[in-house]
Amino acid sequence: MTLDMPFLKQLAPSMKRPLAFSASTLLATVVLLFVGILPERKTIHATDNNLQILNARLTQMRADIANADQQKRKTEEALAERDALIASGVIEPLLGSFAMRGKTLLDPIAQRTGFHIENVRELPPIQLQLPKIHPEQTHCRQPIEFTGQGSYFQITDFITQTESNNPMATLSSLLILAMPNTPENHKAILTFEWPAKGEKAKAPSTKGK
Amino acid sequence: MKSPLHLDLLKEEERLSSSPIRLRVLLPLITTFFLLCALLVWGLFEIQVLGKRKLMANVENAVKSVTPVHAAVLASRDQEKEMRAGVQQLSLYKHARNVFGPTLSIIAAQVPTNIQFTEMRIFPPQTASEPSRSVNPPPAPTNTLERVSLRIAGRTKGSRASESVNDLMAALQTAAFTNVFRSVSIPKGAFRLDTSRNQSALTANESLLFEITCECEPRRFE
After folding, report:
1. Is residue A55 part of a domain?
2. Rounded CA Rg of chain A
């Protein structure tokens, strides 16, 4: 491919050389503009943005670190609050048995009130509602059924004292049946539920955002 | 008079411009100036980039140096969130706790002499009997209220049998019980003759069966 320009042919040789030089320097300028300056400018902008983000992150991190003591205190407070709640009546199985745990807890009360416990049975756990922010370690409602006999007042005393001594225990179901042969003595099936450790949920995906 | 003869031997392209600076000099100068300017700008940009990269490396190093301490702070924050969420869930349970003992204790004092209770029942909480069919079942129950009701079944006899049952119902609606019982009612058909007993005895001293349903304050998991 040749450049056929009659206008160039008419130029004097003394003019052709400066023109060629000018054209090549102009071309070099344009090349420099597009290959060097503009990409460099883009790099500067990108670096500025990254630097800004990184600086903001560093500032946030330093602010977080400056509040580390406060955060530690908050965490300890939350831990203490949760431990206090757990200590107030979140039950754990006794050698793998919630029924035996329940019996251990309520036997002394039964002896005090005269309610005779004949049988203790662990019922399937019931899922407990979750708060807006889900904990990883969830809790469930663990019902334990106590079957026994006693007078009406022995039964109600047993319920009252169980409720007052176990601030987390809730009477979730009750059946008091009159027995024809023993009018003063009734059969009672009482189900108390306690909170207990449930499943460990998967870590929420929003964590760390 | 003879006029002098001018002979013009210059070719067209050999004619000089009237400008003091010739175009063949000016044009290369201008373009060279532009090129130099561009080189200068490029150089300045390059210096700027190098400076910013160095600065960025410094900030990155600073970020790296504080990352372990920061990670510990974030872990502590996550732990706090976990603890608070655990406390909230247990608080839901605690808030939904109903106390029945004192109320059940004072019921006996309200029972007229001609009434005998045969059964008292608080029904267990209803849980989903079959697994959820939805694609993404909720991880926990979403209902915040749980209905609780106490059913009292009994027997009465004598001339004032119905009045006694009414008295008992009225007593269960007094202030001593309203903190636990929201409403007290006799379900339709629940007040009836006790036909299982000896029919001959009914005429003289008829025995009546009744059921009273006490709708309790619901458990509020809120």
Report:
1. yes
2. 41
Chain A residues with beta carbon closer than 8 angstroms to that of B98: 170-171
Please answer whether residues B219 and B144 qualify as being in contact, where contact means their C-beta atoms are separated by less than 8 angstroms: no
pLDDT digits (tens, 9 = 90+) for B131-147: 555 556 666 777 888 99
Same-domain status, B167 and B214: yes
The SS3 assignment for B95 reads: helix
Condensed to tens digits (0 to 9), the pLDDT of residues A132-143 reads 889 999 999 999
- Cα separation of A33 and A26, whole Å? 10
Specify whether A42 is located in the same domain as A98: no
| Domain presence at residue A66 | no
The residues in B 106-125 lying below 8 A from A, measured between CB atoms, are 108, 116-125
**B positions 71-100 inside 8 Å of A (CB):** 72-74, 76-94, 96-100
Work out the minimum CA distance from B219 to partner chain A, whole angstroms.
10
Q: Could you tell me if A176 and A109 are in contact, meaning their C-beta atoms sit under 8 angstroms apart?
A: no
Same domain, A46 and A132: no
Are A15 and B13 an interchain contact pair (Cβ–Cβ within 8 Å)? Answer: yes
pTM to 2 decimals?
A: 0.77
Q: Look up the domain containing A30 and give its range.
A: 14-60
Residue B108 sits in the same domain as residue B83: no
* Alpha-carbon gap: B139 to the closest alpha carbon of chain A (Å): 8
A208: distance to nearest CA of chain B, Å? 8
Q: Is residue B201 part of a domain?
A: yes
pLDDT digits (tens, 9 = 90+) for B49-64: 999 999 999 999 999 9
Alpha-carbon dihedral sign for residues A82, A83, A88, A94: positive
Say whether both B185 and B116 belong to one domain: yes
Q: State the residue range of the domain holding B46.
A: 22-95
CA gyration radius, chain B: 50
- Binned at pLDDT 50, 70 and 90, residue B48 comes out as very high
Model ipTM? 0.79
